[in-house]
Amino acid sequence: MAMNIHFFSTKSYDRTAFTTANVAPQFQFSFHEAPLQATTAVLAAGADAVCAFVNDTIDAACILALKQAGVRIIALRCAGFNNVDLPAAQNAGITVVRVPAYSPYAVAEHTLGLILCLNRSIHRAFNRVREGNFSLAGFTGFDLHGKTVGLVGTGRIGAVMADICLGLGCRVLAIDPIPNAELQRKGVMYDNVAAVIAGAHILSLHCPLGPESRHMINSATLATMRPGAMLVNTSRGGLVETKAVINALKSDQLGGFALDVYEEEAALFFEDHSQDIIADDIFMRLTTFPNVLITGHQAFLTHEALAAIATTTLANIASVVNGQPCANTVGLG
Fold first, then answer.
1. What domains does the chain contain, in order, with CATH numbers?
2. Annotated catalytic, 297?
3. Is the omega angle on the peptide bond into residue 25 within 30 degrees of 0, that is, cis?
4. Would residue 156 show up in a list of annotated catalytic residues for this protein?
5. Does residue 236 carry a catalytic annotation?
6. CA 277, 241, 300, 33 torsion: positive or negative?
7. Which one of the listed residues 72, 77, 206, 297 is annotated catalytic?
8. What is the pLDDT of residues 33-83, one digit of tens each?
9. Catalytic hit among 265, 271, 273, 303
10. 268-304, pLDDT tens digit by residue?
11. Of these residues, 72, 98, 236, 241, which one is catalytic?
């Protein structure tokens, strides 16, 4: 009998990727566009597993509802798990699995794209040319070659980003609890948080979000950055205190901010709000700056990444159901 998996926060590309990966077919799918939260968990009645995404709210109330619905597995089709109440899941006897790596190239390459686009005002030039305006005023950027890039985190994505930056002729400083010896051999220099933040012309975030890293970029750390430096966040929105960034942009302490994630993105991203009045004043303030570039959590979105996410997620679920060890299980340790 096929396992029943209910998917939440799904889009057309999710349905395509998972349907393609279900080659046996070993699983039976039900796709919901609604996010997973306490009030929608009832939709999973009869499911063996639910598959959730980054902005679903899997708190204690949601987990209780999932347990009552008979769900045994919460499968995250993403790397981060800060949106899951792990103690509640453990108490409910529900196993949580994730996709720690899908395509680090997808996120690292998008990060580079944001840096290049913001630095050289490509997005603004595109709009200008469409209007017949070929003025170059305000578009002066800087050579990346020879500049110092600070990487907060050198896991799979951070390591690819380090290679990209080295290939561009940048000096790379990094922070990570476990330095990557191969990157060190290539010339990456590890240092403490203060030194990396202060030394970077471009600071790029590639670390998980947790209690110790929430708002690691705040008014105090921004004040220690090089005047005019660029900040890039393609990891988790909660790493950055947005109000502090706005103040740093207004004072010219921060020279530019590129982001693919935003702390309050759950109410905005992945949906069409073009006909709505967006009530988030902080987000809308960001959009007024000419030196801010925002994409809506699309860094992961490549064919290769979607295929890897689907394949790994289904393999995770199969391993748990068959009582086999699963390296991607998320525990409390």
1. 3-102+302-321 (3.40.50.720), 104-294 (3.40.50.720)
2. yes
3. yes
4. no
5. yes
6. negative
7. 297
8. 999 999 999 999 999 999 999 999 999 999 999 999 999 999 999 988 989
9. 265
10. 999 999 999 999 999 999 999 999 999 999 999 999 9
11. 236
